[in-house]
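[step 3/7] fold_predict: job queued, chain A
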Amino acid sequence: MNKKTVVLCVSIVGALTMSSLSGCASEEKSPTINTDTSQKQTNLQKYTKYPEKNGNQDEEFDLVGTLDKETQDELTLIIDNEKVKIPKRNTFEKEDEINGDIKGELVKIEVNTKGQNAESLELTPQAKANDEGIYEKESDGDYNVIGKLINETSNEVTIEVHNGKKTYTKANDFEKDVDNKSQDIQGKIVRLEVKKNNKVESLEVESEDQ
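[step 4/7] structure written:
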């Protein structure tokens, strides 16, 4: 074998070896990306709107978001413009009154802290509300309303719902349930308990509604 043939053989073997090593290196990088995704999925508690109520010692915590997708084994919520995947627990169940497709609706998921999987799903008051903002009616005629607080005076509360602005007169025993009494809640989403005579009995601000 002459020298030219030897040099050519060495060059071909070297090229094949480098190509093989390059292919192995590419294969080694893929699992790293998958591992990162897995870690994000198991740290669901950072998405809760109740950090002070859902500490690590609790057995469950709540997640609120827009339902983007549901499969037999998994839920995908949009929380703060981020898609969050939540595996379903074997005993997963939905609220009885849910019928049909609820994709795009605002929902609340109860998540098991240890297993990091969904135990139950229910619609939020905003999702249940009709055009008047009413999301629940009592048998005695009282009802609950949700909407954005536009104005509050000593005698009245005005909120904005799908159909426009609605003003309610305060009942004599009116109460306000706000964590910080000095907090300016104008523009916040509020829940009202209204008597059958259309006088508002209480106003409440919930973290999950904001």
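[step 5/7] annotate
The two ends are 81 Å apart (CA to CA).
The domain at 128-209 is CATH 2.40.50 (OB fold (Dihydrolipoamide Acetyltransferase, E2P)).
exit 0
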